[in-house]
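Dig into this one:

. . .
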Amino acid sequence: MFQPSPLALAAMLLLGTSASLAQTPAPAPAMPSPPAAPAALRDEDRDAPVSLEADRISGQPDRQTQAEGAVALQRGRITIRTDRLTYDSRDGRASALGNVQILTAQGDRFSGPELQLDLDRFEGFFLRPEYHFARTGAGGRAERIDFLGPERSTLTTASYTSCTIDGGGTPGWLLSADRVQLNFAANEGIADGAVLRFLGVPILAAPTLSFPLSDARKSGWLPPSINLDNKSGLELAVPYYWNIAPDRDATLTPVMYSRRGFGIDGEARYLAPRHRGEVQWHWLPTDRVVDASRYALQWQQSGNVAAGRWAHEGVRVSDDSYWKDFPRLLGSITPRLLPLSAQGERDWRLGGVQTTIYARAQHWQVLQDADPRALIAAPYHRVPQLGWRGSGRLAPWGGLRSGADLDFETELNRFELAHNDASTGRVEGWRAHALASIRQSWRTPGAWLTPKLALNLASYRTDTPMADGRRSASRGIPTLSVDSGLRFERAAQWRGRSLVQTLEPRLLYVATPYRAQASLPLFDTAPKDFNIVSIFSDNDFYGVDRVSDSHNLTAGVVTRLIEPASGVEALRLGVAQRYLLGDQQISPDGVPLTQRLSELLFFGTAKLSARWAFDAALQFSTETDRVSRSVLSARYTPGPMRTIAASYRLARGSSEQVDVGWQWPLYGNAPSQGGAASGSAASCRGILYGVGRVNYSTRDSRITDSLAGFEYDAGCWIGRVVAERVSTGRSEATTRLLFQLELVGLSRLGSNPLQVLKDNIPGYQLLREERKDPPLRSYPR
């Protein structure tokens, strides 16, 4: 017998969640509480005593007891309330008539006109019951429930919904079945004649279907996925979840693209006591658009061996255009640079220093663009990377109260270029380097001083001559720095709030001698961005290959307004500038720096109230008296599901962008306080929200990326429609349409836009709490 989940069958006729290479594993198909309602009648403590209260009680001791008026019978965590009740203590049978209610400790409730139940064996029946479940905020009705023991029951003419069922109109959605058989021991329910209606229209009709009775994972079909974009057309995917074992599972997803043809997605996971792993794949045997086979493979695995750790992971695709045609399926942060790496490491303690020895290898797949103007320079492969690093505090010496802090790193690397790297003039070869620093800190409540001595040693051997004709070179560069600061505090008042104001000046001195480095390779080095963090560093470069010669002072000051009770910052303002005591020959721009004063950096954050928040960072040129770079942002959040965020970014001569994101009610009254709306939806409120984000380049006079849509919260169901456009080039973009129907208390059906909304809209809030999937479990072996 074909046994799909009811949610999957409903989604086959409607919408589906996206099955993608980077998806999190979907939970087993689940039919929530309505059919599982009788499970609440299974009291684990069958030996619990029976207590009975009523207005009038009569009968024979140790035989039969009659109770009338406000009757309440309690056994363990179950309470039965009714107008009249007969209880036979010899066989534990209770017969209730008139306004019967069953209440559980979990907050579930059942009501109907008549109940007969053997409390010892849980056998009997309940006529015309209505039920409501606290966990899902939903319930329904049945013509009859027959209890066949603590693990089995049967419902006749049953229904389930989270919408109002008081006869005041047609529920927004209703799931009904002629007959439902429940077997809690097997975690399985079987429904005959099941129908799912939305707004009165049948969207599911299945003669027979099966479903799990709990959140436990269970093999079965998951809701199908329907996606629509301008690259692949209409995409239909039907996932099958295979619960192999508590510590292993897999999902297989046949996919049909209207433009490309048939494919298959998959995912497999395992979790063992000492190691874990997962793999995802996407395969198109023949893509009709390009007349070729397409694939993507992503995996990661990690574990522990003795006192060490190991891991390997990677992403690989079939061709250079894959990132444009299937952007959803790549989990890499840089979709055109796909990593492949393996590593092992082991820790041990050497005196007071914690050290780690490690071995790594890293390889990149570079996806180049057909447009020669869009070619990229790839990072070097590292095959291998062998190293030893450590950090810790040395024992006190020379009368000092505390020891100095030591950090060191030594590595041997082999650097190789990708076969399709777009850069020219780069060499391959070996590099051995050693970095070490020792610093001593003195701190008091209002001041601190940290002198540090650092050393950068590197030796190179290249396969082809370097810029100066040599194939080998070595150099050593020391750096002396002294970092210091003060902190002053005073009581302050701002906007009627009692605060603490601080004044925190800081001064950094750095001295690094000049060493010629222009002819040495740039294997893993890049200039630092000039910002409030890098201006207080002792080197203007990331990596090992370049060390800027320095003889400078950096001065800055910060003032903060702090709420003393919570420690929350209401305001932070700061300014910093560097003063060169001598010319700097090695700079990020490649041009010697002779100007004594650097550009001024201003920064600030302000949380004026619970509604308003601001951030700003400005880089001001004293030569041109103009702002050369700036980032300004503001967010207005007056309540739940109400947020507007805007930012402005300027890099003079390079880019200028405006970014606006929002979530805002357009119709109806959204919650005015508290968090996101609860899952309970007894009444349909009917709220329409607008959501979106637009990134506009004023330099190019075009929208680069955009997102716009609507969410409609009807209380017992939520509808979402979102359109997304992502640029993949100056004249190319991928556009897709996401739509989802969420039946509160049942399931979400459709292309899931929630992650897209959370990633793109600052301050976005879910209208309902997300359901957490049961995790894999590992067992000792």
